[in-house]
Amino acid sequence: MRRAILGLLVLAGCDDATPGTLLDGPRVLAIVAEPPVVAPGTSTRLEAIAAVDGLPVMADRVSWRACAPWAVVADPVRDCAGDAAVELTTGPAGEALIDGDELAARFGFEPPPPPTTTHACAAAAPTLTVVAELELDGARLIAKKDVPIAAAPDRRNPAFVQARIDGAAADAGAMLPAGATVRLGADIAIDTLDLACAPDGNSAREQVRIFVYPGGGAVADDDSFVIAEREGTIVAGSVELQLPGEPGDVPLWMVAVDETGGVAARFAPIVVGVD
């Protein structure tokens, strides 16, 4: 599972030479659907998590549309338009609401049948693509997210409990010495990880990958780490974070993406002080 699972495509106006893991200029970091599935008889709220130079902001303007389930959305401008799309109502905070009944009537999709196995787990499901267009700090940004069409809308997004620095819990605004190298990790609420179906018919809690986005001159040695259940034990990875040599603020985002479409974002800024 790589960064592409977030579904973020085009960041118009950004420097293409800037690594995707670094916070520079206007960015869409994630699209969160709550709950993370859509089905007839239910509704889902969508929110775009945006930042400018790493600081959380609201977009100047946001518009949303849902794409037809049969559309192959390689280019969200070209492939999700006309009869292959439906505009979604945008709320005052830039959020959108998917009404499962309205989309089912518009596109005629049917949810998959409930699983026939006796154990509860999140089986694979077809998806509905949603496109967001944002105006942010003078740039036009386009992002897409695939929302599973589920028979039973009981899947959950992962939930951050806390960030960890060198194994210890770290509150937002943690003070660290300039030039330090630390291990960055996170805790996820285990009961928010759904049971995922395995090929052998058994089930285990789905793994979640934490993508790391540092700013302010900090650099991570990898773009992500994994939290997974192995033989009944939760094993959490981490990344090495090199802090800048000068005092200042370091914006830091972590985006959790699970195996069945769940997403969560956490802003965990760091203050770099004098060593």
Short description:
The chain has 275 residues and is mainly beta. The protein has 2 helices and 24 strands.
Report on this structure.
The chain is mainly β and 275 residues long. It has helices at residues 76-79, 100-107, and strands at 10-11, 26-34, 43-52, 55-57, 61-67, 85-88, 96-99, 127-136, 139-148, 160-165, 168-170, 174-177, 181-188, 195-197, 203-205, 208-214, 219-220, 224-230, 233-236, 239-242, 248-250, 252-258, 263-267, 270-273. The strands form six sheets. The protein has a five-stranded antiparallel sheet with strand order 1-9-8-5-6, with no helix packed on it. Strand 8 and strand 9 form a beta hairpin. The longest helix has 8 residues, at 100-107. It is globular and about 60 Å long. The two termini are 38 Å apart. The model is unreliable at 1-19 (pLDDT under 50).
